[in-house]
Each structure stands twice: as structure tokens, then as C-alpha cells.
């Protein structure tokens, strides 16, 4: 199978030659260290390695330092956002509790209003029945009074006799 040589192979990022050189020096310090038998450990020149690490830190690209600063700032902003979100959630819970309490008060007031309306209707029915009974009693009395008057009129007519 033939490989297409026109395709570019992915390249590794370009590193600052100074950093590469310092890494090579660190590897050389490690290679030159004294090996401790049966442990796999190496004793190295601590001052020399420390100086080499300091040079590495100074040789780090500015972009890497800037990226570190951006990372710290994003972590700070994330913490602030989480704190604010927590405050919003707490406020939402408080408002929900308030609305629940208001809803309960509304339910109680509605039930009380319905009970009052029912009592008023019942009282109105009772009053209508009482008024009807009173009117019936008045009509019975009026009918009796009219019957007595009619009887009296008939009696008076009879006393007068037939018309002449």
C-alpha cells in the first residue's frame, strides 16, 4: 500500500530553543547524578538543579505566564459567579416560600368568603320563608276581615229589604 507523501504530517508545537536546551541540561544533571543501589533513586547537585529550574522559569514564554494569570482570574470569576448564583437560589427559595404563604392566606380567605356567602344565602332563604309566612298570615286575617264585612253588608241589606 503506497502512502500519500503529499499529506503533511502533524507537527509538534514549536518550543523556544532556550527551554529545550535547559530541559536537556536538566536531563544531563540527572544522568550525572549518583545512583543509590537497589532503590532506583539518584542523588543530584541540588544547588545546580535549583539554578537550572530558576532559569527554566525565567525562560517560560510570556504567553504561558499570561495563561496562568487568566486561569487564576477565571477561577476567581467562577467562584464569584457561584456565590452570586447561590444568592439568587436563596432569594428564589425565599420568594417561593413567601408565595406559598400568600397562597395559603388566599385559600383561607377564599374558604371564609365561600362560607360567608353560603351563610348569607341560607339566611336569605330563611328570611324569604318568614316573609312568605307573615304575608300568608296577613292575607288570612284580611280575608277573615273582608268575610266579616261582607257578612255585615249582607245582613244590612237584608234588614233594608227588597228594593222598592
Task: Outline the structure in words.
The protein has 164 residues and is mainly alpha-helical. It has a domain of 46 residues. Helix content is 79%, strand content 4%. β1 and β2 form a beta hairpin. The longest helix has 99 residues. It is rod-shaped, with a radius of gyration of 55 Å. It starts with 16 loop residues before the first helix and ends with a helix.
Rg, alpha carbons: 55 Å
Please give the order of strands in the largest beta sheet. 1-2
Number of strands: 2
Sum up the overall morphology in one term.
Answer: rod-shaped
The percent of residues in helical segments reads over 70%
Counted by DSSP, the helix tally is: 3
Structural class: mainly alpha
Major sheet: size, sense and barrel closure?
2 strands, antiparallel
Would you tell me the overall average pLDDT? 82
Question: Spans with pLDDT under 50 lasting ≥5 residues?
Answer: 1-6
Helix and strand pattern: HEEHH
Task: Quote the beta fraction.
Answer: under 5%
Distance from first to last alpha carbon? 155 Å
Tag the structure with descriptive keywords.
disordered N terminus, 164 residues, 79% helix, two-stranded antiparallel ribbon, 2 strands, mainly alpha, 3 helices
What does this entry show, briefly?
It contains three helices and two strands. It is mainly α.
Write the layout of secondary structure elements.
Elements: H1 17-32, E1 34-36, E2 41-43, H2 46-59, H3 62-160
Antiparallel strand pairs: 1-2
Helix pairs in contact: 1-2
Amino acid at each position: 500500500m503506497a502512502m500519500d507523501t503529499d499529506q503533511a504530517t502533524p507537527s509538534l508545537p514549536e518550543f523556544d530553543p532556550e527551554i529545550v536546551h535547559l530541559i536537556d541540561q536538566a536531563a544531563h544533571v540527572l544522568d550525572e547524578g549518583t545512583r543509590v543501589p537497589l532503590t532506583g533513586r539518584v542523588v543530584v547537585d541540588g544547588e545546580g538543579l535549583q539554578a537550572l529550574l530558576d532559569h527554566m522559569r525565567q525562560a517560560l514564554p510570556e504567553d504561558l505566564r499570561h495563561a496562568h494569570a487568566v486561569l487564576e482570574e477565571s477561577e476567581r470569576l467562577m467562584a464569584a459567579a457561584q456565590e452570586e448564583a447561590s444568592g439568587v437560589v436563596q432569594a428564589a427559595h425565599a420568594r417561593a416560600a413567601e408565595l406559598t404563604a400568600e397562597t395559603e392566606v388566599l385559600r383561607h380567605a377564599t374558604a371564609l368568603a365561600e362560607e360567608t356567602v353560603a351563610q348569607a344565602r341560607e339566611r336569605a332563604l330563611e328570611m324569604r320563608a318568614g316573609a312568605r309566612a307573615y304575608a300568608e298570615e296577613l292575607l288570612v286575617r284580611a280575608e277573615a276581615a273582608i268575610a266579616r264585612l261582607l257578612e255585615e253588608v249582607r245582613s244590612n241589606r237584608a234588614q233594608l229589604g227588597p228594593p222598592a
